[in-house]
Amino acid sequence: MSDKKNLKGGSSKLLYYRSRPTGNRTPKTKIAHGKQIPYYEEELERIYFKEEDVQKFSLDRHGQNIPYVDGHLTIINNYMFDYWSHFLSAEGIALFGHLLRYCYGTKDICWPNLELIALKMNKSRNTVKKYLAILEEYGFVYHFNVQNADKNNTDESPLFKVRKKVPFLSHELYEQMPLVLQVDHDRYISHLLETCEKEDLELDTSVNYNDLYNELIDKGRIQRKPQQLSLFEAEKQMQIKKQLLHQDVTDVDKQLWSDFIEEVKTKISKPSFDTWLKGTFAIKRDGIYTIYAPHKHVKEWLESRYCNLITDALRTVDTNFTGIKIESTS
Question: d(Cα 173, Cα 209) in Å, to the nearest integer?
Answer without folding.
Answer: 14
